[in-house]
Design a protein that fits this description.
The chain is an alpha+beta fold and 379 residues long. Helix content is 28%, strand content 35%. The protein is elongated, with a radius of gyration of 53 Å. The termini are far apart.
């Protein structure tokens, strides 16, 4: 059977891809490979990041104790100053020029000891004149007494008139008075001479000397300031609202700048019976023994006056530390440190009573360390 030529053809042979199709296939292969490599790198990076995660922090071991309550003494804080038990400024009591000084500041003196001398030559002359006046008045009195006796005889005989008799007897009555006046002037002159020697009125220490040789002084001029300092007076004012808290013989504690935190003690000796109207306070006085003479008159004192007691939370003294000029403590709350600022009172029996900052029952770190910090995990 004859078929037409080329009516049936052989199967189609595979076609060669074009250049553009080849480029597309290459790009698709490269993209797929890149994505696969990126994913592998990302998984490897995540695995490394997971491997670098730090372990959880470890808790620091600390010693702790509960905040307790104490019946803490209460104090009234005021200020005052120290004075000598006896303290005075000695005046010249006479006018004149200073001829001699016998003491310097800080010298110990005894009662009656000469401190300074003032020129009293004018007073001495006045004394000499007064002595003459006394002798004159004494002589005149004697003459008048003799004359009065003679006139008394004449009067009895009626030889003189009543007027003459009265005139003579009047002289007899005034003569003794004139003599007494002359003696008084002599005593004043003698005192002026004696006042030229300025002496200590009591045993004490010279606080200040106000004059030098050559200075001219009046009777009211200050010469030497003298004080007893083996026992001192502490003078301080108490507000009107607190006067019922002040009792005689109550303990007084105080500090002075010269000795920092060292505490000195005294006892209330004098509580006034009235409030000062201008300042609405009371001036209280305490006695302070000063055997070593560490304290001096004029020192400024920061005073704490015991006025009773009050129940307050208290923390161990070892737990308290200072920061930024205030007292702090670490409280343990939910396993972490919480730093608290305290409003403390004066430490008592190894504890620090606290008005604010902690409450009874809380736990505090009993021993402070520089390694501790706010928020730190502890056990």
């Amino acid at each position: 059977m004859n078929f037409p030529k080329n009516s049936l053809s052989a199967p189609d042979a595979p076609r060669k891809p074009s250049a553009m199709t080849a480029q597309r296939l290459l790009r698709s292969f490269l993209f797929t490979s890149l994505v696969a490599l990126s994913g592998s790198a990302l998984l490897a990076g995540c695995k490394k990041a997971d491997d670098a995660t730090p372990p959880p922090p470890t808790a620091t071991k600390v010693d702790s104790s509960q905040v307790t309550e104490l019946e803490a003494p209460q104090y009234l804080r005021v200020t005052g100053s120290l004075r000598g038990l006896q303290q005075t400024d000695l005046a010249a009591n006479v006018a004149g020029r200073v001829t001699e000084t016998k003491v310097e500041r800080g010298d110990d003196v005894k009662k009656g000891q000469l401190l300074a001398r003032v020129d009293t030559r004018a007073a001495a002359l006045a004394l000499a004149e007064a002595k003459v006046a006394v002798e004159t008045s004494k002589t005149q009195r004697e003459i008048n007494e003799t004359e009065c006796k003679r006139y008394e005889t004449l009067h009895q005989k009626g030889a003189i008139t009543e007027l003459e008799y009265d005139q003579v007897t009047a002289k007899c009555k005034t003569a003794p008075l004139n003599e007494e006046a002359a003696k008084a002037r002599q005593s004043i002159a003698a005192k002026n001479v004696g006042d030229g020697n300025i002496a200590a009125l009591f045993d004490g220490v010279v606080i200040e000397r106000f004059v030098d040789v050559g200075d001219y002084v009046q009777s009211s001029s200050r010469v030497v300031s003298l004080a007893q300092i083996d026992t001192l007076r502490l003078e301080f004012s108490v507000p009107e609202a607190n006067w019922t808290d002040v009792k005689k013989d109550a303990d007084v504690s105080f500090r002075v700048a010269a000795y920092g935190d060292q505490i000195f003690h005294g006892k209330v000796r004098f509580v006034p019976g009235a409030v000062r109207e201008t300042t609405r306070d009371l001036m209280v006085e305490a006695l302070v023994e000063n055997p070593g003479r560490k304290l001096l008159p004029g020192m400024f004192a920061e005073i704490e006056l015991a006025i009773g007691s009050r129940k307050l939370p208290a923390v161990p003294k070892t737990a308290v530390f200072e920061q930024n000029g205030k007292l702090n403590v670490f409280v343990i709350a939910e396993g972490h440190l919480v730093q608290r600022v305290l409003q403390p009172q004066r430490d008592f029996q190894g504890f620090v009573p606290v008005v604010t900052g902690v409450v009874a029952g809380e736990k505090v770190v009993t021993t402070y360390s520089n390694a501790l910090s706010n928020g730190q995990l502890v056990n």
